[in-house]
């Protein structure tokens, strides 16, 4: 069973995305409907810059 993230939980991007989307700690800000392939989507917000991003569940990890 895949890990489920919670609203407000600190997360970071997995290594393959850090160079492209930025380093640092983010927090889960919301949930979105899953993609057509069933992959859960999360809205995350940077804790320092406040930038919002939409990521797939496998692209983030708990801190």
Side by side, the strands of the main sheet go: 4-3-2-1-5
Tell me the number of structural domains.
1
Order of secondary-structure elements: EHEEEE
**What does the overall shape look like?**
globular
Sketch the major β-sheet: 5 strands, antiparallel
Portion in beta strands: 35-45%
Structure summary, number of beta strands: 5
Helix content percent band: 10-25%
Helix vs. strand class: mainly beta
Gyration radius (Cα, Å) is 11 Å
Q: What is the helix tally?
A: 1
Name the average pLDDT.
88
Roughly how many Å apart are the termini?
Answer: 19 Å
Low-confidence stretches: none
Give an account of the 3D structure.
11% of the residues lie in helices and 41% in strands. The protein has one domain. The model has no long low-confidence stretch (mean pLDDT 88). It is mostly beta strands. It contains 1 helix and 5 strands. It has a 5-stranded antiparallel beta sheet with strand order 4-3-2-1-5. Strand 3 and strand 4 form a beta hairpin. The chain is globular, with a radius of gyration of 11 Å.
How are the elements arranged and paired?
Elements: E1 10-13, H1 15-21, E2 25-32, E3 41-46, E4 52-56, E5 60-62
Antiparallel strand pairs: 1-2, 1-5, 2-3, 3-4
What are the salient characteristics of this protein?
11% helix, single chain, mainly beta, 5 strands, 63 residues
């Amino acid at each position: 069973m895949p890990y489920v993230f919670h609203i407000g939980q600190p997360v970071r991007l997995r290594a393959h995305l850090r160079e492209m989307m930025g380093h640092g700690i983010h927090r889960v800000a919301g949930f979105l409907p899953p993609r057509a392939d069933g992959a859960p989507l999360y809205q995350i917000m940077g804790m320092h810059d406040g930038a919002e991003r939409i990521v797939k569940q496998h692209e983030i990890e708990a801190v």
